[in-house]
Amino acid sequence: MSTADSQKNQVIEDIVKVPQHVAIIMDGNGRWAQLRGKKRVVGHKSGVESVRSSVSAAAKHGVKALTLFAFSSENWQRPEKEVSVLMDLFMFVLTREVKRLHKNGIKFSVIGDLSKFSSKLQKMISDSEALTANNTGMVLSIAANYGGRWDITHAAKKLAEQVVKQEITVKDITEESLHEQTSLAELPELDLLIRTGGDFRISNFLLWQAAYAEFYFTDVLWPDFNEEEFTKAITQFDLRERRFGQTGEQVTNN
Asked: Cβ neighbours of residue 203 under 8 Å, at least 6 residues apart?
C-alpha cells in the first residue's frame, strides 16, 4: 500500500460521525467544459466519472444512501441538443453502470416524474430497479425530472386521494403521514447535502427532506469532484454540531 493510500485510509478511520444519507447537486459540468474551450455536453460526459467516484467513496465511508440530482424538472428548458445528450447519458448509465452497481450489491432507484420520459427509458428504469431490488448494500437514488415542489405536491395529492376514497380523514394528515408519501421516505433522513460548482442554493432539490440536513458548498466543478473531495465533505460534516432545535449544552449532555 502506498503512503498516499495509507493517509486516505487514516482519514476515513478518523471520521467519527458518518452521514447515513448524502445527496449531491452535481453542478458545473457546462462551465468545466467551457473553461477548456469545449462544448457543454463534453462536461456532462466527463461528469460520469465523478458519479463513479462518489458512489465508490460513499460505499467506502459506510454511507447507507446516496442521492444524486441528475436532471431537474426545470432542465427541460435547456437547449434541445443538451437535453438529448443528457437522455443519452441516462441510457448509458442504465445499460452499463447498473450492471456494475448490481455486481457490488448496490440498490438502484430513480425518483421524479418519469411520465415525460420515453416508454423505452421508463422500461429501462423499471428493469434496472428490478435487477437490484434485492441488493442489501448502499441505495443509490437518481433524481430525474425531479423537483422538490413537485415531490411535496405529489405527496399531498396522494393523501387527498385517500381522503376522497374515505381511507383516511383530514385529521389523519400529519407531518409523518405526508413524509411517508414523499420520495425517499423509506431511506434514512437526509444528513448531508452537497453542492458543487460554487453556487449557494439548493435549486428546488429535496425541499422536504433537507429540513435538518447539513449543507456543504464547494467551488469544485462536478467533473473534478473525486473521492478526495467527497471525503472533505464528510470530514466537514463530522466537525459540525447537529442540534435539531436543542441548545449546544443539551446535545453535549445527551
From this structure: 25, 69, 72, 74
> Which candidate in 9, 14, 75, 113 is catalytic?
75
Torsion, Cα 132 184 219 212, to 10 degrees, reads: -150
| pLDDT tens readout for residues 70-115 | 988 888 888 888 888 888 888 888 888 999 999 999 999 999 999 9
Q: Mind listing the pLDDT tens digit for each residue in 157-190?
A: 999 999 999 999 999 999 999 999 999 999 999 9
- 133: Cβ–Cβ under 8 A, 6 or more apart, which residues? 107
Q: Where are the domains of the chain?
A: 17-147+189-241
Residue among 5, 9, 14, 27 flagged as catalytic? 27
DSSP string, 13-63: HH-----SEEEEE---HHHHHHHTT--HHHHHHHHHHHHHHHHHHHHHHT-
For 241, the 3-state DSSP assignment is coil
Class of domain 17-147+189-241: alpha beta
Model's pTM, two decimal places?
0.89
Report angle CA 84, 51, 204 to the nearest 5 degrees.
65
Q: How many other CB atoms sit within 10 Å of the CB of residue 227?
A: 19
**172 catalytic residue (yes or no):** no
Strand partners, 67: 23, 141
Catalytic, 238? Answer no
Distance from C-alpha of 232 to C-alpha of 246, rounded to nearest angstrom? 27
Determine if residue 211 is left, alpha or beta; phi over 0 gives left, psi from -120 to 50 gives alpha, anything else beta. alpha
